[in-house]
Amino acid sequence: xxxxxxxxxxxxxxxxxxxxxxxxxxxxxxxxxxxxxxxxxxxxxxxxxxxxxxxxxxxxxxxxxxxxxxxxxxxxxxxxxxxxxxxxxxxxxxxxxxxxxxxxxxxxxxxxxxxxxxxxxxxxxxxxxxxxxxxxxxxxxxxxxxxxxxxxxxxxxxxxxxxxxxxxxxxxxxxxxxxxxxxxxxxxxxxxxxxxxxxxxxxxxxxxxxxxxxxxxxxxxxxxxxxxxxxxxxxxxxxxxxxxxxxxxxxxxxxxxx
Amino acid sequence: xxxxxxxxxxxxxxxxxxxxxxxxxxxxxxxxxxxxxxxxxxxxxxxxxxxxxxxxxxxxxxxxxxxxxxxxxxxxxxxxxxxxxxxxxxxxxxxx
Lengths: 258, 96
Prior knowledge:
The complex is a heterodimer.
Chain A: H1 10-32, H2 41-69, H3 75-80, H4 100-121, H5 127-155, H6 159-180, H7 184-191, H8 198-215, H9 238-252
Chain B: E1 9-15, E2 22-29, H1 33-44, E3 52-57, H2 69-73
Antiparallel strand pairs in B: 1-2, 1-3
């Protein structure tokens, strides 16, 4: 295990790594809900592949978080036995799938965020995070290719598909603010070269999203002030249902294994 | 008539590793060639089956007629001298 940079206490690093891991875990679980329900067999596999990449990222990050915490919690304990208030994902990830277009809009917004985030984190002073980011960035680059291609097809498709993805964009856009709202924890990590400066990530994300939206003939909604604090454990009503389903087995049959 | 409710069919060819030929592995539906590549990647390379993908619209493939199998392929049957099995291979040659 690589040593945390000098001025960062392990509790802060623990919470920061959980933020990253929980975003992937919750989004992966959400995408998994499509399995067996996608518009085509090919999309079923496409979405499931992305979900499994995300769960894989979450496994690496949660395992690392457990090691930082040093209380013997592994990836499974952290994933299956944490209450909703101890989950630190931005709440965009937990928003419902809606129709296929809504899922794609959510995916584009988060894929572009993770791409800009991981590209910068690949040079983190925390070697473990740098290695996880370097592996994940390849996956996320494909995720964005998949999701943004779909957004262009739907946005620049029929009147019906355009209307649907534009309204999904209006609905989900306000939640994007939280991704870039830096708090003390984000600043601590940026100052110590562990995580990127979120304002830089925001600028790059914004340019990328503008290019995709323009090709998809969609209008970028106006930014509005945010009141979301999923990154501090205050979630929307949706996360509880996700965790109930995801954690059911481990809570009913503790420590059961395949 | 082409059924517009169904995406067109593509044939998928995968190269297992550098230096080998692309081999036909199956087919899939996609709305365009780029989506076909994505689907092929997700369906046919998720167990590390390949390093390169070709997709071809199925309707671009011209096939021989099964009804002509006899006249197409049987004349080759009695020409065993075309197989390179009549040469003496020196023991020193290992890689033929």
